[in-house]
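Quick one: Ribonuclease G from Desulfoprunum benzoelyticum, C-alpha cells please.
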Amino acid sequence: MSIDILINSRSYEVRLALVENGVLTEFHMQRPMEKGLKGNIYRGRVVRVLPGMQAAFVDIGLERTGFLYVDDVHITEKDIENRMLDRDSFPVIDELSPVPGEISSRVHGSNIEDLLTEGQDVLVQVSKDPIGTKGARLTCHITLPCRNLVFIPLTDHIGVSRKIENEEIRTILKEQIEEIRPQGTGFIVRTVAEHAKVEELEADMEFLMLLWDEIRDLARSSKSPALVYEDLDITLRSVRDLFTNDVDRLIIDDKAAHEKLLHFVRAFAPQLQDRISLYQGDSPLFEAHGIEVEINRAIEKKVWLRSGGYIIIESTEALSVIDVNTGRFVGKNDLNETIFKTNIEAAKEIAYQLRLRNIGGIIIIDFIDMEDEFHREELFTTFKEAVKKDKSRINILKLSEFGLVQMTRKRNSENLHQMMCEPCHYCAGEGMLKSRRTICYDIFRKLSRNAAKASGNTVTIRVHPRIADMLLKEEELTILQLEQEISKRLVITPAKDLHIEKYEIIWQR
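--- reply ---
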C-alpha cells in the first residue's frame, strides 16, 4: 500500500492530506487566524470552582475560560499535608508541577473543592480545542510528545503503543526505557519507535527532559494567565505524528516550509529526509492529486455509494446521525440481498467518512433493517474491521434490533464541517426556512389584525422577490378578497435586499 503526505502551505493557511493508495483518508488544516490550541501548556488561574459539576473554570488568557474536570487535577502528597495543617492554603505552581520523581495523582474520592481554590495558579495543558460554544478542555496531566516517545513528567509509568503487537518487541522496548529513564518519570513508546535504536530513544528522552525543565522555569517566572509552551505547527507535527516508516513520500509546495521541514527532520528523523520533496509542478499540488474535489465532497451531507445507494450525515454539537438508504440501487435477485449489500458498502464508507471528516462524540448509525441474523452479524463484523485503521479511540455497541449502531469516537478538535463552514446567515444554522406560502399567510394575518388602526387607503408590502411572485400569481385571489375585507389597496413591491423570511408593511396615511 502506498501512503503519501501532501502539504499545501501558504501564509494564510496550511492544509495537509494523508493519501492511501490514491484515496484521501485524513485531512488537517491550520489557519494562523484560527490556530488550534491542543497541546499548548499554560500557567492559568482558577476563576471558579463548581462543586455541583466537580469541575473548575480556569483563565488561560483566552476569550473563554478553560474547563478542568476533577479527574484531570494533579495533587501531590505535599499538598495533602499542607491542607491538613492549613485548610486555607492551596498549592502554588511548584507543587502542581513536581520535579521528576515527585509523583502526583488523582486522590480517590476527593472533591474538586478539596483540590482547587479560586485564585489558585495551576499548570494546565489543552487536551481538547474549543468546540462550538464550549471552552478548551484542560488537564494537569502534562504530556510532551517527541518522535519516538511521549514524556509524562508527573507519572511513574512506562507504556507501549497498542499498535506494536509483537510481545517480544514490547518487552524489549519496556526494558530499554526502564534502563535509561530517570527514576519516577513516565514515558510511552510510540508506534514509530517499534524498530528504533536505543540511541534514538535516549536522544528523544534527553530532549524531552530539557524541554520540561524549560517549561517549569518559564511557568515559575510567568504571571498568570500565560502561555508557557506552544505545540508544533501542523507542518512539523506531520513528521512527528504521521510520518511513519509506512509513508513513502512527503510532498510540500512551499520552499521556505520545505527548508524548515528538512531542518527539523535532520534533527529528529534523519533517515526520512530522502522521502521529502518540494513540489514544482505547473498545477496546484492538491488539484494535481485530485484532493480539492475530495475535500469539497467531504463537507456535503449526502455521500453516494458506488452501488447507487447513499448515506446522509447530520451533525449537532454533541451528536451525529448517519442514515443509510438504497437510493438508486435496486439489486438483482431479492430485497434482503439488496439491503445487505447496501449496508455492507455503507459500513465501509461510514468508517472512511468518520476518519476523513473527524466526526466525534456520540454517533448513531441507522442501517437499513435486516431480518437475517447472519446478515446482521456480518454487518457488525465488517464495520468493526473497517474502523480499525482509525487512530481515534472508538467504542461500538452491538447492532440493535432496529438496525441502529451506537458508538462513540474521541473528539479532540473541530470536525471538518465545523472548520470549513459557518451557520447559514439566512436560517442561522437551522437548515430550514419558512415556506413561501407560510410567509404569505403571516403577512395576511398581520394585515387583517392591524387594518382597523390605519387611516390610509393604500398599503405597500415590501417582500423578497420570490414571495412577491407567489403573492401576485398563486395568491392573487386571496389578495383581492383581503382588499375587500380591509378596504385597503395592497401594493406588492419586490425588494432584493430583504431576507426571504422578512417583509415590511408600510401603512400610507
